[in-house]
């Protein structure tokens, strides 16, 4: 019962209070990896226009997090080891931002569950365990502003004649390149194909304050991220900044209409396994459906014209 309520809330949280997209000041004109413009702070809050956002509940999956839940840099740091994770109540998100203070970018987010965090006396909160973004300016700012453990990846999107859409993600943080993060992997870390029903029924995702109030009542706070400090890494562009304080961040999605479809997460045969080594493209474990216990076909919401917001964090 509790899991079902959380599942509904996970879907519902995407429409939080309506925040109009603010006019954003860009901190880079040419926001690409190749650009020579210096890193400039783009302070929170960020209210981002998402061209497309896919939200995939990760529910009832394994209680033990796989090694691949974290990037090699964060894996053995307090970012991963502080507090405990109530796994199996999480989300995967794949978003194409049309604009942001650092220009357009793509993002892949894994939230494996709800975490406790020593020092935070509040309720369990989501923690983004692993996240890829498509350029250095969002990596640098995301790590610095909110302790979000961003790493760069190349995103390869393709639309097919049958109406499906695929994405393949080639990260820089392969285990072998841990000290460099110098360029994308040869095989994808993740690939997925989205299918929408032939007649796209638009479903308004409801905001239910009753659900979030109930969740608070049973000890969960799904509208906030709890992020311990991040270690510093050696990215090619100096983008992997570290931080020294904890941050709790309000986040949400507003103005969204959703169509309900599915995401196929089968990773083979051209997927991320290297030969039959059981290792994936970045040196982590290989699972045919990407994650332990994940089914091949997953419910996916496709949100249209939404605003994704990351508030100013409470730091401690
Ligand atoms: C970021 O850099 C990598 C190579 O270093 C490249 O593959 C990727 O496409 C770049 N992304 C952007 C948005 O420039
Ligand atoms: C961004 O900067 C790079 C490196 O100077 C350059 O190759 C590229 O053409 C620029 N892109 C735009 C859109 O100006
Ligand atoms: C992380 O810790 C594990 C076990 O303690 C160890 O096997 C692994 O090599 C460590 N990884 C890194 C990147 O330090």
TrEMBL record:
The keyword Signal applies. InterPro entries: ADC_dom_sf. Keywords: Signal. Residues 1-20 form the signal peptide. This is Uncharacterized protein. The lineage of its organism: Eukaryota, Fungi, Dikarya, Ascomycota, Pezizomycotina.
